[in-house]
Design goal:
With about 375 residues, this protein is α/β, with parallel strands linked by helices. About 35% of the residues lie in helices and about 20% in strands. The protein contains 13 helices and 11 strands. The protein has helices spanning about 5-15, 40-50, 55-60, 60-65, 95-105, 140-145, 165-170, 195-205, 250-255, 270-280, 290-300, 330-345, 345-365; strands at about 30-35, 75-80, 120, 155-160, 180-185, 205-210, 215-220, 240, 265, 285-290, 305-320. Helix 6 (about 140-145) links the parallel strand 3 (about 120) and strand 4. Helix 5 packs across helix 13 and helix 6 (about 140-145) packs across helix 12 (about 330-345). The termini are far apart.
Length: about 375
């Protein structure tokens, strides 16, 4: 296979994963499943969980799926997690986290040379990823905290909350007021000429950690919208697309969806995007499924919106630092070492699954 970037792999996956679902063979959660002809992740998720949201299946099978970007090969074995995210019915959701935490505490040096604490900044109201009301501040914040104690790291850190995402990249990181922001999507910097001003800024002024999470950005429309039947990105020509401020649109730009072919609308919050879609002020709302689901649930409008089953883009999220920070790359390397260990041990999956389970339980209350 030719060498490609992660974002190219994931964009390829999107076409396979959101292929219009055929009926998958009957299957249950908490088992393994062997892919058959005509399966998509959406159809498998529907059969196992009653929903076309396959994010949990992707999380549990990340390595296998990233190696097969164009299709689900017949015979591929997939782990279908339990409803709460456990990989098997006889394994507690936090078993790996508990074991890795105990191991890190036992290996922590009694005395170590003083080094200044690494200063992290993030923002609230991005559930289940970053919010002070969640365990350890949400999935991404928990990953940062954990990475600083894995991969041979035993470094002090401080987490601060500044609820203005754009200030992170406009002021707080470039001025070295903070070292790392949690967390941002990456642009495909191999296609710099296709990116708008914002995407180019993110490529040229910031450094990125290894990916900490990958997710599909789906296209939400009103059920009677002409764009609900789109089966090619070019079918969105002329559409008004909503992405909140500070959410890059580079994944759309590299698919040819750039102004003036489409019009981007950037309100402050994700909920505003959902409201604008319901009012007919925009044609499309493109965001990850967890956020969109919560938005339309809050607005009691789930029945008014449909997700395009054939089109999506894949996004990878990262910790970022300013290239102006003399220690930025060093700090990202520390995080990368921790992320790599978390992936290898399975702790990464436990953090994601337990965070999503907490979020789902909150939604049901």
């Amino acid at each position: 296979m030719p060498k490609t970037s992660l974002s190219q792999h994931l964009t390829g996956i999107a076409l396979a994963l959101f292929a219009f679902p055929l009926a998958a063979a009957a299957q249950d959660a908490c088992t393994t499943y062997t892919v058959t002809e005509g399966d998509s992740l959406g159809s498998i998720a529907q059969a196992a969980y009653g929903s076309y949201d396959y994010q949990m299946i992707f999380n549990a099978n990340r390595d296998a799926l990233a190696a097969n970007p164009n299709s689900l090969p017949v015979g591929l074995q997939l782990v279908l997690p339990c409803e709460d995210g456990r990989l098997s019915a006889d394994q507690a959701l936090t078993d790996v986290i508990d074991a890795e935490t105990a191991k890190a505490e036992a290996e922590a040096p009694a005395d170590q040379e003083y080094q200044p604490a690494i200063k992290f900044v993030t923002s609230n109201d991005w559930m289940p990823f970053t919010d002070e009301s969640l365990t350890d501040g949400g999935i991404f914040v928990r990953m940062a905290k954990t990475a600083m104690q894995r991969g041979g790291n035993h470094r002090d850190y401080k987490i601060s909350w500044v609820n203005d995402w754009m200030s992170h990249i406009d002021v707080l990181l470039p001025s070295n007021a903070f070292d790392i922001s949690i967390a941002w999507e990456s642009s495909d910097c191999t296609k710099l000429d296709a990116l708008g001003e914002f995407g180019q800024k993110m490529c040229t002024e910031f450094d990125y950690s290894l990916p900490i999470y990958e997710t599909a950005y789906a296209f939400n429309t009103l059920v009677d919208s002409k764009y609900a039947e789109a089966r090619d990105f070019a079918d969105y020509a002329g559409a008004k697309i909503c992405r909140p401020e500070a959410w890059p649109v580079s994944d759309l730009e590299v698919q040819g969806l750039a102004e003036p072919l489409v019009t981007f609308v950037h309100p402050k919050t994700t909920l505003e995007c959902a409201e604008m879609l319901l009012k007919g002020e925009v044609d499309l709302y493109s965001i990850e499924s967890e956020t969109a689901t919560e938005n339309f649930k809050d607005l009691k409008a789930e029945d008014l919106v449909v997700v395009n089953p054939a089109l999506a883009t894949f996004i990878s999220y990262h910790f970022i630092s300013s290239k102006k920070n003399p220690h930025g790359r060093e700090y990202l390397d520390l995080l990368d070492a921790g992320i790599a260990e978390m992936r290898e041990s399975g702790e990464w999956y436990d953090i994601v699954a337990s965070g999503l389970d907490e979020f789902n339980n909150l939604k049901q209350e």
